[in-house]
Design a protein that fits this description.
Strand order of the largest sheet: 1-2
Oligomer: single chain
Largest sheet: 2 strands, antiparallel
Helix content: 40-55%
Length: about 110
């Protein structure tokens, strides 16, 4: 079976850290709960793609600098969750998403 590689952030889970396996990889490999996995973990060097994207967004939208990287990332996750479930997006995340939307619109229509 060909190994799959992906990049992910470790998240707090109780007293441990956890990673999520993207659904497309779960389906391709047929992974189910309790499936034995051979996992290799390597800390990514500073300047990975996510950090570069966050830096670019903050450069294009200086008003985002008041938000932490985690708040910005959470706003994307919560916006998607809101789309899928119809739940209300918290106000702080709405502000971030509004700023990001304006940045993206400005890139599409210079």
């Amino acid at each position: 079976m060909k190994p799959k590689q992906f990049y992910q952030y470790a998240a707090k889970w109780g007293n441990c850290l956890a990673i999520r396996i993207p659904n497309n990889i779960v389906k391709q490999l047929g992974v189910e709960p309790n499936t034995p996995l051979d996992v290799s973990i390597k800390k990514t060097e500073a300047g990975d793609a996510t950090e570069q994207l966050l830096a670019a967004i903050k450069k294009l939208g200086p008003s985002l600098k008041r938000f932490s990287d985690q708040e910005i990332l959470n706003s994307f996750v919560m916006a998607r969750y809101s789309e899928l479930t119809g739940a209300n997006l918290p106000e702080s995340y709405k502000k971030i998403q509004d700023i990001v939307s304006k940045i993206l619109d400005g890139l599409k229509n210079p």
